[in-house]
Amino acid sequence: TLTPPASGTDGSPIIFDTYGSGDLPTITGKYNGNCIFWSTPRSNLIFRNLHLRDCGQPDGNNVGGINVYSSAGISSNILIENSIIEGSQTWNIYMNGMSNLIIRNNVIRGAELQHGIYLSGGFGISGAIIEGNDIYNNKAMCVQLNSNGKNRLTGVVMRYNLLHDCQLGGINNIGAAAANIYYNIIYGVMPGIYNSCDQYDTGCAYGATGGNYVNNTIQSTGSTYATCFNNRASVGDPDFAAFINNICWHDAPSGAALSDKETTGNPRVEYNLFYSPRGDVEIARRNVTYTTFSAYLQARPEDVGQLFGDPKFINASAGDFGLSSGSPAIDSGITWGLNRDIAQTVVPSGTAPDRGAVEHAEPEIILPIGAPYNLRVIQ
């Protein structure tokens, strides 16, 4: 187990990185414990270009890949990037008691009992960016944001991630306040996003609240139950602020494409594109269930800009969720102040932002030198 012996300083962090050439340096804690662990506050640390595998113990025992249980004070300014974290016995990344955390451009896969990433509010989480990661095949959620009934997570941003084929779902937000979750692609045999409360959070006092879910592409499938977005809890009323410009491709025998069963507030649900190869989708809004999309549109005219239609993904079965020409998602969203999509394409590339995580950009035709006015034509 790697335990950082000290903190770095502002402008001079301690960096754990590869040296020289060859394979990434490997840390394995199999049958022994965490791969990286600390409980005394540590700050200004960078973990880069590492391979963490098979971390933890066979029975779980709350140990895994990177495990920070900062109970004696807050750890801050931690960067984890460009690494492979896989096969942990419990979770691949667990953070508790943290500020200014960045988890960027990693492959996070195959946690055997728990989540790909678990951010816990037990000792507080403030300022966390999860971006550019490929998170998949984890036993529970791809990403878990959990207040644990103690402290809401604040300043959480999730953007530009691929989240797929995790057994229990893509994102489980059960305790973040005003999270900004945008331009992610969520797909595979699993539900998409939960906005809810922890089962131990009495009355949902620290549940998810005020979140913005914008320009995500969600393909939810399963042989039993699946949903693109679920805002409900058995222990209280979570809420969210906005579900806008998303694509929801829903294919399951049970479960609403959008399941908003709570009654607090009145969040904006606008300019989303819904589709199902089964022919129709069920929508629940403010605890009223509409069994057809047309019934929902008639009953909820305030949910402006909602569409039903095939988004015409380029090749979803191969993981390509780009939009083919003629997709109803192209140029039909609304502006939300975001200027780059998941591939860092400029938004908007047309007359308005597209719906979903991938902005459609027609190829440029460059006329040859000497053509009249040297025109640059956008096809």
Question: How would you portray this structure in words?
Answer:
By secondary structure, the chain is mainly beta. The protein has a 20-stranded mixed beta sheet that branches. A hairpin with a 2-residue loop joins strand 29 and strand 30.
Report a brief summary of the structure:
The chain has one helix at 293-299; strands spanning 14-16, 26-28, 36-38, 43-48, 51-53, 66-69, 75-81, 84-86, 93-104, 107-109, 117-131, 134-136, 141-146, 153-159, 162-164, 169-174, 176-177, 180-182, 185-187, 193-195, 211-214, 217-221, 229-231, 240-244, 247-251, 258-260, 268-270, 273-275, 283-285, 288-290, 307-308, 313-315, 320-323, 364-366, 376-378. The chain is mainly beta and 379 residues long.
